[in-house]
Amino acid sequence: MIDLNKLVKQNILALQPYSSARDEFSGEEGVFLDANENPFGELNRYPDPYQRKLKQKLAQLKNVSVGNTFIGNGSDEVIDLAFRIFCDPAHDKALTFTPTYGMYEVAAGINNVELLKIPLDTEFQIDLAGVKQMLQNNNIKLMFICSPNNPTANLINKADIEYLLSNFNGIIFIDEAYIDFADNENSSIGLINRYNNLIVSQTLSKAWGLAGARIGTAYASDEIIKLYNKVKPPYNVSKMNQQAAINALDNIEVFKKNLSVILSEKERLKRELSKTKLVRKIYRSDANFLLVEVSDADFVYNELVKQKIIVRNRNKQVKNCIRISVGTPQENDELLTALNNLQ
Ligand SMILES: *Cc1c(COP(=O)(O)O)cnc(C)c1O
User: Fold this and answer.
1) In terms of C-beta density within 10 A (0-12 exposed, 13-18 middle, 19 or more buried), how is residue 179 classed?
2) Looking at ligand 1, which atom is closest to the CA of residue 77?
3) pTM (two decimals)
């Protein structure tokens, strides 16, 4: 176990967190004259600052304790808080593996923390020798691993993740936004009891279809969750968003049905795309999108936009690649027709 007090910023250790009216009294019934709320209306009351109902459902689903669960206003907040808790601006550094999700760079920039980057290898896996070298003379507090990785779509080897967990004395943040599209045993969530420096972040934005509700989650040791609760804005998840998430979790059959359609559509897309002349290569995908190498990504992207079909041009990250999210069967058909008309 790592002494987390050595990793946390001194000002955060010393911080006296805001104590909200709902911290002091959290019962559901009574005459509430404590928060200067308006007594009239439907959304007149502040939401539960610790999202207890929602956390109970998530914790049960993920087989973890409520005390190991945090909910943020999207993963974006979960990522930002990691910088704010652990990285002293202009001093500490963070590390990630590229190409990857752009928010780590943006959150690092906002927090004035340098983000070091090691390119993934030709299989889009972590170059462990490169990491060892990078760790030698750098003040690295925080490491971001995205698995399945965006935009490359593949899972990162679990053995490499465990190696890093055993050998890195900072915080390891594993972004599992797409984990529900992969097999369950690939999640690192089961490791949070063994490594107190591990944060596993997930989201309801992708497989749960709630990108509009902004529900990001973090699973970690209770020490880390306490730090997150200390630093987060008191009412960071709105009542409507908490309720939307609870409704989705109560309808797991809908989730499963949509997930299976997306997964079978992904296979169909892969088959059909590989028959089109413009497609050079389709990378292995453990997510709900495909990274596809075409003859000329800028050309294909622009031609598709003309037909009002929007994919993500990743030419700058991976040469001549576009990233295609799996849509409804009809949307996928439209994409395939448009591509076939291009060649
Ligand atoms: C889409 C995505 C997220 C989701 O972010 P939210 O803020 O929860 O919507 C997180 N990480 C990665 C890598 C993503 O691609």
Assistant:
1) buried
2) 7
3) 0.97
